[in-house]
Structure formats: structure tokens, C-alpha cells
Amino acid sequence: MQGVQEGLKKVMQNAGIGRIRKIGERECEECGSTVPIMERSDREGNVFEESLCLSCETNKTRSRFPDKGELLRAKAQGFSIKYEVVPKKLLGKTVSEYQTETDSEKLMKNTIADYIMNFGKTKHNSLILAGQMGVGKSHLAYATAAELRKQGYSTMFIAADDFLKLIKSTYEKETDLSEKTIFEMIQEIDLLVFDEIGAEYNNQKGEYESWASEKILKVTDLREDLPTIYTTNYSPADFEGKYGAIQGGRIVSRMQAGAKRIVVEGRDRR
């Protein structure tokens, strides 16, 4: 003990500190904690009074560093930008340039505009844009993600087929990306656009079909209560025919949870 005291004494001497003693207490104006009032003297005999709230100082230090949630959000934003796959024909597309020709197309455009304007505040978390090919579902879905990204949200546009390819790429030894990380990021993204669900592969019976439906189900499960836009040419019955009655039913159920479904009719603009 004496050795420790001597060592502490030398440290204080080297730092120019003479004597330290507690002379009272006070209440911190910010947090209300009881803070000791200390008096210290230097080697020249000058006396200083100090009273530092360690609790407030610790909080100030922590505030200068991002918390775990902010770091995860930043990671998800980087992931979404790096791994999204947008067809060249969609790049730069906006909601305003989409020209409607049918009542259902007008409904789709108006719904999308409202979804962007009131993102996170609409009664429905998600949208299902269903209907035949070439009516502009992907156009408006992409435009939504692009506009919300400009507003600072993390968004990702990816077709179901490209998503499955991304999952399969993690099975290669050369990549640092893992399937676990992909699903963690999918769950953190503010808005996921899952394009052309149901058209991701030809109806291959067997192990691949089971594997693919399992991964798609996991996406819909993770995004059940989170803002998601699905585009598809399939009806609920088509999903059951493609993925099986049980698996297809689960996928449809999770897609429709908290979602507004719009069936779009019009001519094929492709």
C-alpha cells in the first residue's frame, strides 16, 4: 500500500499537483446528480476549486460517437447502394414522367405519389403492384426508391431473380459477403423494392425451387411490417401454383400484411 501511495505522490508531483481534498458537494444543474467539490493546490501554493460531473461528461463523450443503431443504419445504406441491381432502362425514371392511360394506372400513380409524400405515415406499410407486363409497375417502384433516397432514406431496388443470384454468390469462397449479412441488411433498409417476384426462375421442380421459395419467404417474413414495394405479374393463386399451396400461401400472406394491393391494367409499353 505504501508503495502505491508513493507512486501516486510522484505522479501528482510530476503533474504539478500538490494536494487534493473534498470540501463539499453540489447538485448538477443538468442531470441533478450529486457532484463533489474538490480543492487542489499546485507546487507554488495556488489553490483551485473544481467540481466536474462525471455523468454529464461521459454522456458528452458518448454523444460524439455514433450509437449502434446509427452504425447499423449507415451499414445498411452502404449495402443497398452497393448491391442493388437496376436495369438501365429504369435509371433516371421519375413519377411525374409516367403517363397514365387507364384508371388503374392513374390509381397506381396517385398511390405512389401519396406513398412518397407521406412515407412512414400511410395506413399501409407496403404496396403490391400487380398486373400484366409493360404497364409501368417497375418504373414507378424504382422512381419511389430513387426519390426517397434523395430524402435521406436507405432504399434498395432488386429483382427477385437478382436477389437469389446475390444469395448464391455468398456460397463462393472468394466473397466476404455472407447470406446472414444480406438478410440482416434487408431487414434494416428503410424501403425495399422487390421487383418481379414470381418471375425469378422457370418452374423448375426439385431442390432449386424449394431453395428459392424458402429465400423469398424469408424476405417477405423479414419485411412483413416494414415498407416494401412488390411488383409482380402473378395473382395469389399463381403464387400457390408456383411455390406450392403451403409455401405460396405463406409468401402471399406476408406480402399482403399491411399492404395495399393494386391490380394494374393497360397496354404493354415495352
UniProtKB/TrEMBL annotation:
SMART domains given in the database record: AAA (SM00382)
Keywords per UniProt: ATP-binding, Nucleotide-binding
Molecular-function GO terms, alphabetical: ATP binding
AAA+ ATPase domain location: 123-268
Transmembrane segments: none
Highest taxon of the lineage: Bacteria
Classification via SUPFAM superfamilies: P-loop containing nucleoside triphosphate hydrolases
Name of one Pfam family that matches: IstB_IS21
Protein name: ATP-binding protein
